[in-house]
Amino acid sequence: MIEINGLYKRYHLQRRVYDWVLEDINLTIPQGVSVGLLGRNGAGKSTLLRLIAGMDTPDRGTIHRHCRVSWPIGLAGGFQGSMTGRQNVKFVARVHGGRGDVHEIIERVQAFAELGDAFDEPIKTYSSGMRARLNFGLSLAFDFDIYLSDEATSVGDRAFKAKATQAFKEKVGEASLVMVSHSEGILKDLCDSGIYLKDGHATWYDDIDDAIAVYHEETDAARAASGSAEPAATPADSPPVTPLREAQSLDDARAQLREVKAEFDTARAEFERAQRDDDMAPRERQTYGDAFRASRERLHDARRQVQALQKGEE
Amino acid sequence: MPDETSNSVGARTPWQVTRSVWYAMFMREAVSRTMANRMGWFWMIFEPVAFTTIMVAIRGFIRGDRFIVNAEYIPWLITGLMGFFLIREGMLRGLGAINGNSALFAYRQVQPVDPVLVRNVLEGLLRSFVFLLFIAGALMLGTDLLPDNGIRALGWWFSLWTLGLGLGLITSVAGTLVPEVGTVIRMINMPLLILSGVIFPLNNLPHWLLEYLLYNPIVHGLELMRAAFFEGYQVVNGTSATYFWLFTLSTLTIGLLMHLRFREKLKVK
Fold it and tell me: How many CA atoms lie within 13 A of A46 on its CB side?
């Protein structure tokens, strides 16, 4: 259980005091309930998560953690760039008091993160996805009561996302989750309740769907406001792709593909020439670019058509 | 003071947490200090050797080594250099300790004071080891570098380390919050080496100048350690163990207080 009472937080930087990021937050996160944190960028989600994790201290108010809480699992921080993945894992295992079973923890992390040889390379050579995998695997190696996740699953590939979601689902019952995510699928999948942050205030929703609905209302309103001010410009930029005619047979489709391919080749040649020509105005150059992209679309469509017909014949 | 809220079921006591943090950090620092750098071991020993050799060569050239009462010049120089390096490293290691470990403050168990303490302990151990090597090496070459009063020599060696730790605690906070402090400290390093009486004995200096030089606690510490090494050694007039320890304890107190006061700022940095 985590109790947050009268919490205020703002940042100071070289004598400048910024506005409150979080104002008068009063929340109780019960044991065994997974919570999703929602809000627009800059609403204070990550700040609240850092405060819960104890990385930062509130300006006013208190946070009581009555159980073992993880560090915020995510992209930022937690690893020393010059040390290898293995050394970092060792360090964290020792900090968390796992003196005897450090090797066991290392093996578990290694198995989960699937980094291969990179496990013994310095962290600074890792991609963001690899870091996230290591961080995630590391946190799962300890038995926390509450896991804090800050977009932990957002950078991984599909296989990793599925694995991470699966790992969290297995922990349901023993551990719960406080997560920040912009992916509603994952929120709906893993969370029971939601906290919606807006203008520094937090609102608790017993059902995550209600929180998502409120979040949608706000983002839709924002989009409508910005949309009316600025007329939709994007669709007009690229000319519509002339649709292909329906191919009657495989040979017909192949002939069409050849045709489109020839069109595409000329469009590409012209586009490349336009790229090299320095005297050409950007406006003119753009028309070549558009033509090139449009014919590429057509080429892909033609290929797909041929493939579909081939599959049909087999 | 035990924190009531953290003492629920399964949680470790603050002391247990601190101990495992120190252990983890010590292992990490020890590996990166000795292994990460190519030839790290070699330089750790060779740097003081080279420095001593250069200094001895220069001094042989100027021929001023007859003025030290009851001590040979080379052992006198080596004890001074070792003691001075111990303090200097304490000060300089503190400077980078917090920035070098800032990524690890993501774990709330790790406090900014931990890397400073751990680095200083590690540095003290390594320097002691190098000093022992020097003593052994000197004995094999026929120079008597064995302390005449071992216990007192050890005591003052430890005292010098404590001063380095106190200064390191202060510089770690000041240098992290105000980066210019680091530049200034590196700058005053060289003059401090001469002003502390490491290379030239201070005894021949005029009294009015000596009065000012004796505000520097390093002079007191070095002279007292040399007195333990060489029986009958004539310390600089006005050397006081009380002054040294008052200064050391003050720096320790101020350093720890600064760490308490600026803990949150240091973590964010």
Answer: 13
Share of chain B above pLDDT 90, in %: 37
For A94, the closest chain B residue by CA position comes to: B24
Distance from CA of B32 to the nearest CA of A (A): 8
Strand, coil or helix: what is A205? strand
Place of tokens 């006198």: B76
Q: What are phi and psi for residue B204, nearest 5 degrees?
A: -85, -5
3-state secondary structure of A149: strand
CA distances from B162 to A40, B169, B196 (A): 51, 10, 17
* Amino acid at position A96, single letter: H
pLDDT tier at B26 (50, 70, 90 boundaries)? very high
CATH fold for domain A2-229: Rossmann fold (3.40.50)
The residue among B4, B105, B108, B118 with the most chain A CBs within 10 A of its CB, best to mutate, is B108
Q: Do A96 and B20 touch (CB under 8 A)?
A: yes
Q: Do A91 and B12 touch (CB under 8 A)?
A: no
The domain limits of chain B are 10-268
Cβ contacts of B110 on chain A, cutoff 8 Å: 95
How far is the CA of A89 from the CAs of A36, A54, B259, in angstroms? 27, 20, 27
Give A77 to chain B, closest Cα distance, Å: 5
pLDDT at position B65 is 54
Is the CB of B20 less than 8 angstroms away from the CB of A95?
yes
> Is this prediction's pTM over 0.80?
no
Angle at A162 between CA A157 and CA A163, to 5 degrees: 100
Angstroms from B264 CA to nearest CA on chain A: 7
**Among candidates A53, A78, A91 on the partner chain, residue whose Cβ is nearest the Cβ of B28:** A91
A78 contacts B103? CB cut-off 8 A: yes
Going across the sheet that includes A22-29, the strands are A22-29, A2-9, A60-65
Give the C-alpha distances (Å, rounded to integers) separating B49 from B20, B42, B44, B222: 36, 11, 9, 19
- Res. B11: pLDDT tops 70: no
A90, A92, A99 member nearest B107 (Cβ): A92
pLDDT at B4: 37
Q: How many CB atoms lie within 10 A of CB B151?
A: 9
Contacting A with CB below 8 Å, chain B residues are: 5-6, 8, 10-12, 16-17, 20-21, 23-25, 27-28, 31-32, 36, 101, 103-110, 264, 267-268
- Residue B193's contacts (CB-CB under 8 Å, 6 or more residues apart) are B84, B88, B199
Tokens of B38: 């190519």
With a threshold of 0.85, tell me whether the complex ipTM lies above it: no
Pick from B17, B28, B106: CB nearest A78 = B106
Q: Write the pLDDT tens digit of every residue in B41-77.
A: 788 778 888 888 888 788 777 665 566 666 778 888 8
> CB of A204 within 8 Å of any CB in chain B?
no
Name residues of chain A where pLDDT drops below 70.
Answer: 14-15, 75-77, 98-99, 153, 155, 227-247, 275-285, 313-314
Length of chain A: 314
Domain boundaries, chain A: 2-229, 235-313
Please name the amino acid found at residue B114.
Answer: D
